[in-house]
Write a structure and sequence with these properties.
alpha/beta, Spore Coat Polysaccharide Biosynthesis Protein SpsA, Chain A, 2 domains, nine-stranded mixed sheet, two-stranded antiparallel sheet, globular
Length: 320
């Protein structure tokens, strides 16, 4: 059996569109599947939207309320309550192609693959501004896009959370999503999805890239603003520092900041100053913000208050 886990927070309008696309999935008759919608303490009409789908598709949709704010709490609650042996994940603001679920999960039933990830594409009319060059592929993460081409094969990097699937046993063996990562009302720090995928790859398990499993992610106007990109990369720097720690072989600190991070900041500042093209110049600026996020998080983690109260990274109610 497959469980599709969709976590949502205050997006009742977009949620309806996402659920319509999931309800329209074409899955083999021999494969049982369900959709578990985890409401992460929404204040809008989310529950009414989900209950409408429960009535229209009896036995297919289920509603789960998770009061603790934070996407990782919602994801882990969904894992605990899922009935499937294969768990597929999708977000509340995307639309899935009709064969998305079948293509994403078909390789996970035999046990050869521990997980899979598909393509996350923008709308067909998407046109980036001149300062945003998509040749810098890691910028796609800022827009929640993931596209490694049209050839299937091994994944050597983690898939994104809005289009990924794992065998349930993977969570039982390697824990669930970290609680200090993932967005919540007072923080936009992300990375709970990619950290988990990196953990699985580091354990030597195989993840499959399935380009035929496609979802379409909107690119709202506010995400095409420079201030959004810079804020996103600042939070990405904080997230990366939490996940990977200070750079390896760090021996020297200046005012509590690794000297290596300061050197890298100077390097990217010089590149930013001498960059000619708008896209290159803004890319250098975003790298500076990424490093600034790491520096701020380093100072925070070395503060007495943080040392006295370490971050909880495991949900006491996680599957393991």
């Amino acid at each position: 059996m497959i469980t599709v886990i969709l976590c949502t927070y205050n997006r009742d309008v977009a949620l309806g569109k996402a659920l319509e696309s999931v309800a329209a999935q074409k899955v083999l008759d021999s494969v049982a599947w369900e959709v578990l919608v985890v409401d992460n303490n929404s204040k809008d009409q989310t529950r009414a939207v989900v209950e409408d789908f429960c009535r229209r598709y009896p036995g297919r949709f289920r509603y789960l309320f998770e009061p603790r704010p934070g996407k990782s709490y919602a994801l882990n609650a969904g894992i605990r309550e899922a009935r499937g042996q294969v768990l597929a994940f999708i977000d509340d603001d995307v639309t899935a192609e009709p064969d998305w679920l079948q293509n994403l999960t078909f390789g996970l039933h035999s046990g050869e693959w521990a997980g899979a990830g598909g393509r996350i594409l923008p709308p067909g009319d998407f046109s980036p501004p001149r300062w945003l060059s998509l040749k810098y592929r890691h910028w796609l993460g800022t827009l929640a896009l993931f596209d490694l081409g049209t050839q299937p094969g091994n994944l050597t990097e983690p898939p994104f959370g809005t289009n990924m699937a794992y065998r349930r046993e993977v969570f039982e063996r390697y824990d669930a999503f970290r609680l200090d990562l993932g967005p919540r009302p007072d923080s936009e720090i992300r990375g709970e999805d990619t950290e988990f995928g990196a953990r699985i790859l580091a354990a030597g398990l195989r993840l499959r890239y399935e380009p035929a499993a496609v979802v379409h992610h909107p690119v709202p106007e506010h995400r095409l603003q420079k201030k959004y990109f810079l804020a996103w990369w600042f939070d990405k720097g904080r997230s990366d520092l939490r996940e990977f720690g200070v750079p390896p072989n760090t021996s020297y600190f200046v005012a509590g900041i690794p000297l290596l991070l300061l050197r890298r900041s100077v390097t990217w500042a010089l590149r930013w100053m001498f960059a000619v093209s708008p896209a290159r110049r803004f890319f250098c600026n975003s790298r500076l913000r990424w490093l600034a996020g790491q520096i701020v998080e380093t100072r925070r983690r070395r503060s007495p208050a943080c040392l006295e109260s370490p971050i909880v990274t495991k949900d006491p109610a996680s599957p393991r």
